[in-house]
Amino acid sequence: MEEDLAFLDNASAAYEDIEVNGAPCAPLPFDRPKTGNAERVDAPVYNPVTHDVLEVSNIIYERHADGRPPDRAYWVGRKLKKCIFGVVKECTILRFRNDMNAPWEVTAQKAAVKIMSWQKIRDLRHIEDPQKEVAAMQYISKSGGHPHVMGVLDVLQDDEYLLLFMPFCSSGDLFGFVQQAGRFPEPMARYWFKQILEGLSHLQRMGVCHRDMSLENILVDEYRTSVVIDLGMCLRVPYDDDGKVTDVSAGTLRRLIGPLIPCGKPNYISPEIFKSEGPFDGFAIDLWAAGVILFIMLVGLPPWEFAGEEDPRYRMVARGGLERMLESWNRTVSALATDLLQKMLREDPRQRLSLCEVKDHPWVLGDDSNAGSFGAPSNEGWRG
């Protein structure tokens, strides 16, 4: 109950409340990632459907120091996409069956594994640190995880690779669905937006600012569930402890974060991050990006190239002209949706809606039962 009250205090806090809560400070560090020892083998695998036993290569599991059998293994399969530090591949999860003739059994469960080279991690650490992303994912998963934020199944390592095993999302990213549809009808946009807000709610409960929210960083699984991914740029938000700095577990109000180098996709970066001249509220910049996500779902186009005075479309919206801009584009959006977008995309974070205000907005509370259904986008761009 106290945890829920603390969350609501932060989810409803105005910028001014946070501004007077203490001097801006640096984000808190994440703990180092916890990893197990990876064992890679070829082994016979039993198929319980066909009752066949197949000799399978490239099975990875955790080798326990005490010799106890592994809980599960991963049969690594096809490549899904390249990443900066290596590759992402699809896996089939295997169950240990304690049979010398076929020690593993196929299951219907899938996973994805990000295979990252230690050499590339060392060479490119100045660009991005994947160990921080792994640590952040473990951190947000420690309370049992959340269906709308990508969690961790296992983190293993050997001399060559860091291996991050995650749930598998079969239907690509939400950007692909918008591309396929052109733009979403409002009930469909509302259906997905509510899930995105639930993902943001979990991050706020854990005291985490994502900092790179975008349609490309929201995957969709076969059950029409969206999952926020890519925590490589996230920050652990500082909280106040009677003038000192603590974390979210104290149940207090968060503090502003001192200026940092801008990061994220230009369309989604908030104006205060784009300028990078003063402190910012980690939760407010994620809600700004959520507003851009909703805009693109409803309109089919990004509102601007970047949130700076040099961009004429941004200038128009910043001065309250979002409705006029949509009329000039001949893109009809309901009055309630326009009202929500304008209030989420206010230039001054002091005037922007909080998470609670967004979730309580009449448009968000509307009916999404006619959201309809659609298949995976044909290009499935995230797979490369």
From TrEMBL:
It holds the Pfam family Pkinase. It comes from the Eukaryota. This is MAP kinase-activated protein kinase 2. Keywords: ATP-binding, Kinase, Nucleotide-binding, Serine/threonine-protein kinase, Transferase. GO terms for cellular component: nucleus. GO terms for molecular function: ATP binding; protein serine/threonine kinase activity. InterPro entries: Kinase-like_dom_sf, Prot_kinase_dom, Tyr_kinase_AS. Residues 74-364 form the Protein kinase domain. The keyword Amino-acid biosynthesis does not apply. The lineage of its organism: Eukaryota, Sar, Stramenopiles, Ochrophyta, Bacillariophyta.
